[in-house]
Amino acid sequence: MILKVEVSVDPKCIEPKVTIHTAEMTDEIEHLMHCIASAGIHTLSVLSDRGVEFVNCQDIVRIYTEQKKVFVQTLTGIYTVRLRLYELEERLNMQIFVRISNAEIVNRHMIKRMDISRTGTIGVELVGNINTYASRRYVTKIKKQLGL
């Protein structure tokens, strides 16, 4: 895909706006839209026993659901968020985060090792000695995002 980029500088413009002109919606265009939309998010507001805190997205190891709650895990703690997993997936930079199952998103920079067993389950070892599993349903998407 050849991509033409035009930038128009207008001193009257209050907020930057990106418009994409295309003949059809493709995976590449959807990926580009997501990257542009999530480029500005660097911190995530989370809830702890001390109240609302702000976590740097680079410090997030994983985001997961458990008992109908959404948790954000860093190397220093586990926090809750009021957003649903799909809302976080829309907001986060998917160049950094990868969805590995219906219940979990991980930071790709925090993946130490992935192990494919004979039964088809994929073990994922994250920094901080955190172990989890990827769903077989997401394997193709994971491989594409990780360039495998």
Condensed summary:
The chain is an alpha+beta fold.
Can you walk through the features of this model?
- With 148 residues, the protein is α+β, with helices and mostly antiparallel strands.
- Helices cover 18% and strands 36% of the residues.
- The chain has three helices and ten strands.
- A five-stranded antiparallel beta sheet has the order 5-4-3-7-6.
Termini Cα gap: 21 Å
Mean pLDDT score: 85
Spatial arrangement of strands, main beta sheet? 5-4-3-7-6
Strand coverage percent: 35-45%
- Please tally the β strands and state the result: 10
What fraction, in percent, of the residue positions are helical? Answer: 10-25%
**What is the count of DSSP helices, taking H or I runs of 4+ residues?**
3
Assembly type: single chain
Order of helices and strands: HEEEEEHEEEEEH
Largest sheet, described in full? 5 strands, antiparallel
Notable characteristics:
alpha+beta; three-stranded antiparallel beta sheet; single chain; 148 residues
What topology emerges from the helices and strands here?
Elements: H1 27-38, E1 43-48, E2 51-56, E3 60-66, E4 69-74, E5 78-81, H2 85-91, E6 97-101, E7 104-107, E8 111-116, E9 122-126, E10 130-134, H3 139-146
Antiparallel strand pairs: 1-2, 3-4, 3-7, 4-5, 6-7, 8-9, 9-10
